[in-house]
Amino acid sequence: MNRTLGRVPTWAIATTFILSLIGLALSTYLTITHFRPADLFCTENGVFNCGLVTNSGESRFIGIPVAFLGLGTYVVMTVLNSPWMWRAKNYWIHVARYVLSIVSMCFVLWLITAELLIIKSLCLYCTGVHIVTFALFIVLTQVSLPQLGLVRSRTE
């Protein structure tokens, strides 16, 4: 089956790549501080307590530190959102990008729920990753669906 890919605006390519680099930087920092908690620079009073969040039981998913999952996700997302990959002709690369954003957003919703209802503290760096993930999801929803031919472009 031959599928035709729609055009993606230049602003979306630049935005998704920059957001992915920001997510990669934040998740790298969270992974480093997983091994060296003393390097975690964050307030520990009131609503924000990064140490409490990053050391909670919810900071692991099936035994894997969430920081590792975030780092792995953003390594892949940075590659998929690079200008070179946006030019790829393979339809499934573009499907994978959008599916990863959906899965990531679902995981972020679980993490926010855990922070607010179970841990009762927020991590500033984790919140940064959550915001970046949400922004990526919004941009990719706007451009991926028309690109993949799943909805009509507003310009058609």
How would you describe what is shown here?
There is one protein chain. The protein has 156 residues and is mainly alpha-helical. It has a single domain, classed as VKOR domain (de novo design (two linked rop proteins), Up-down Bundle). The chain contains six helices and four strands; from the N terminus they run αββαββαααα. Helix 1 (10-35) packs antiparallel against helix 3 (66-80). The longest helix is centred in the C-terminal third of the chain and has 29 residues, at 91-119. The two termini are 24 Å apart.
Topology:
Layout: H1 10-35, E1 44-45, E2 48-49, H2 50-54, E3 60-61, E4 64-65, H3 66-80, H4 83-86, H5 91-119, H6 124-147
Antiparallel strand pairs: 1-2, 3-4
Helix pairs in contact: 1-3, 1-6, 5-6
